[in-house]
Amino acid sequence: MGKTALMIIDMQKDFCLPGAAFEVYGAMKVADKIKEALEAARKHGMPVIHVFRYYRADGSDVEL
Predict the structure, then answer these.
(1) Residue 26 to residues 15, 38, 46: CA-CA distances in angstroms?
(2) Contact by Cβ (8 Å): 38, 50
(3) How many domains does the chain have?
């Protein structure tokens, strides 16, 4: 078993979409490249790990 995996972190609407609550400037500029990497990883049977953040609706657990 190989030791390589693709990890995709925080590619979520709240971080990526223009005007979103926690928009990361330039995040959407890399979306196509991330999609290409994801497709290649899946094609070659590489493990893919998606990391997402979930917050309470009232925002009480959001770190700044």
Answers:
(1) 10, 19, 27
(2) no
(3) 1
**CA 33 remoteness from chain centre:** 12
- Do residues 14 and 20 make contact, with C-beta atoms less than 8 angstroms apart? yes
Q: Quick one: pLDDT band at residue 2, thresholds 50, 70, 90? A: confident
Nearest 5°: phi and psi at 20? -70, 165
Closest CA to 35 of 19, 50, 22: 50
Residue 60 domain-assigned? no
Is the model's pLDDT at 1 over the cut of 70? no
User: Would residue 58 count as lying in a domain?
Assistant: no
Residue 57 lies in a domain: no
